[in-house]
Amino acid sequence: MRNGMMGLLVCCWAVLVSAVPAAGQGAERDARLPLPFGIGVNIYHQDQGYDLTSLKVDVLEGDLAALENIEIDNDVTEVNLKLDWWALPFLDLFGIVGFVDGQTDVDNDIIKNLSVDYEGVVYGGGVTLVGGWESFFISLTAAIMETELDTSTSSVKAFIVSPKVGVVTRYGALWGGAMYQETDEHHEGVIDVPIFGRVEYDVEFEQKESWNGSAGYTTGVGEHWQIDLEAGFGNRIHASASATYRF
User: Fold this and answer.
1) How far apart are CA 176 and CA 13, in angstroms?
2) With respect to CATH, is domain 2-246 assigned 3.10.20.340?
3) Where are the domains of the chain?
4) Which residue of 16, 63, 69, 77 is 20 to 30 Å from 229, comparing CA positions?
5) Which pTM does this prediction carry?
6) pLDDT tens digits, one per residue of 101-147
């Protein structure tokens, strides 16, 4: 799946580059470009369903991933610092580092109320490709995120792609789009199992649905500040707010 998404990125790169205004429109284009460097703070929250890819409990034989009537919910809040650089008129490079706090809840007739809480450092980076014509624009952001959690037996990794289409107005920019997210989450620990008491477990999750919709708004405040708001809907609910100082 990830190879297919990388192929999509390559195709979209070509489309976006071809959409950038010609060099002969330099004066008008330069006036619409952001300042090259940015440092910002972002708050992000999401809630989504998970699928169970593997579940092993030391007192039960085999992998329990095929359990029926299982419900899994993941809830994550993240605060990060983002540094970015507009290397080219159509290419923004960025890196992030921050704090993540999450909880994954599993409920089934056999495994009752398994709740995995975790927190730690999140870091990653990515690229944003943009192109536009008159007041309209398209963009494509791809990012890879990893974590250093409070326990060495837990890990969360995510690959994210977000295409957007929008319009620039005198009051800011509005857009609609989507988010693709490929998540790998792994935990080991101890759980209470009826009859057996406290036993060790090893569990792995992935996202139930890869895509959800999104919509957002961005505006400048003075020459240097930029405010971004985004909401996600559908298979994954998310919300984010960020303030960036550009120079």
Assistant:
1) 19
2) no
3) 2-246
4) 16
5) 0.84
6) 999 998 876 666 778 899 999 999 999 999 999 999 999 999 999 99
